């Protein structure tokens, strides 16, 4: 699924869904996406149960990686694309274990 917004918007959707969900499992209905947005899910959630913090980390890591790939791994441009500061981008990359591919400029 290609999320059309930034990380903050995604975070708000997830937080709202968590408040609306029952039994700690977020469903498509809890996300309250516009019709059709959830139909092209490129990365479906598996049937296994996963603690929410781990699930959110996976989603955040995916969003960061997609932005980095779009920008040729330019962290400054990726941060801007996601509505983050460079410092926040660098912190989140470190926290989630995202490293620049060999041969890219790590100094942005």
What does this structure look like?
The chain is built from five helices and no strands. It is mainly alpha-helical. It has one domain (7-95): Orthogonal Bundle (Arc Repressor Mutant, subunit A), CATH 1.10.10.60. The longest helix is centred in the middle third of the chain and has 19 residues, at 52-70. The protein is elongated, with a radius of gyration of 15 Å. The protein starts with 6 loop residues before the first helix and ends in a 13-residue tail after the last helix. 11% of the residues are buried. Mean pLDDT is 80; it is low at 37-42.
List the helices and strands and how they pair.
Layout: H1 7-20, H2 28-31, H3 52-70, H4 75-82, H5 86-95
Task: Report a brief summary of the structure.
The chain has helices at 7-20, 28-31, 52-70, 75-82, 86-95. The chain is mainly alpha-helical and 108 residues long.
- Average pLDDT level: 80
Q: Would you identify the regions where 5 or more consecutive residues have pLDDT less than 50?
A: 37-42
Q: What is the total domain count?
A: 1
Structural class: mainly alpha
What sequence of helices (H) and strands (E) makes up the elements? HHHHH
How many helical elements? 5
Report how far the terminal alpha carbons are from each other.
28 Å
From the structure above, extract its key features.
Arc Repressor Mutant, subunit A; 108 residues; mainly alpha
